[in-house]
Amino acid sequence: MEDKPFQALVVEEAEDKTFFRSIRKRRIRDLPDADVLIRVHYSSLNYKDALSATGNKGVTRHYPHTPGIDAAGIVEASRSSSISAGEEVIVTSYDLGMETDGGFGQYIRVPADWVVKRPQGLSLKESMIYGTAGFTAALSVHKMTGSVPPDRGDILVSGGSGGVGTMAISFLVKAGYRVVAVSGKTPDADYLTSLGVAEILSIEEATDTSGKPLLKDRWAGVIDTVGGDILSTAIRSTKIDGNVTCCGNIASGDLPLTVYPFILRGITLFGIDSQHCPMALRQTIWERLAGEWKLERLEHISAEIGLEELDSRIDRMLAGHSQGRTVVRM
Hints:
Strand content: 25-35%
CATH topology of the largest domain: Quinone Oxidoreductase, Chain A, domain 1
CATH class of the largest domain: Alpha Beta
CATH architecture of the largest domain: Alpha-Beta Complex
Radius of gyration: 20 Å
Number of strands: 15
Oligomer: single chain
Helix content: 10-25%
Structural class: alpha/beta
CATH superfamily of the largest domain: Medium-chain alcohol dehydrogenases, catalytic domain
Number of helices: 8
Number of domains: 2
Order of helices and strands: EEEHEEEEHEHEHEEHEHEHEHE
Shape: globular
């Protein structure tokens, strides 16, 4: 078994400190020693994967490396009494694809406590259409909607055409919310409208840099995926007792803000950490994704590619040309 070969996308660092990636043959023995060996059937492409694939040391410090923070497949061998060979499983988050070789290889080997058994009602491919992006969006909706029912008013979603934004919009529309999306990509208007978005704001319309501590209240709740001035503007524009979630910093990690939205309007800001989400909540969210929250048109918000197409898709994502979710058939 240890000599069994498989294909994987491998990122390597050259002597001149540049990085290159290629599909290479690896062997099971190259994987880290851990409890569960999984034959990966599907993975998905996330922005963190694209960063790892270009040598971003904030994501992955040690190369050569195989990215892929998502994986779904069938257990081939297990040293754990709770997981058996032949079971269909999902692995997302933790260290997968960061320092631990990830889902862009046809095999992964991971600790047993990273593994979620595939819930009934969800195929392996469907679980990767969701992937970390869908899981993060579901966590955000779970937090944001806790005390914000649909009749409270509009929900703002930033980064609307990205993976998390697309999923968050879809969950909210399914639950009966009126959704306004922020997108910096004019060609994405038809796509966002097809998801059920009622209104689309440009980045300029969604950004206020006046320095005012409070703005006219507009949003019952906000799901922010970008951070920076857009998040600050959204918080300052949220209605009394509204909920705001944040899960990204692609715009900026800085948050220019005063305490006034929190002490004068009672705004709650939830940080979303899908990487270290407790297993009990993780399992609950996956069950909801397979049940009451399952989207009817998952294929509409995803594209399936083979491993050989992954390199060009990474470049497209980094150039800002990705839309929806990309599932990688392994």
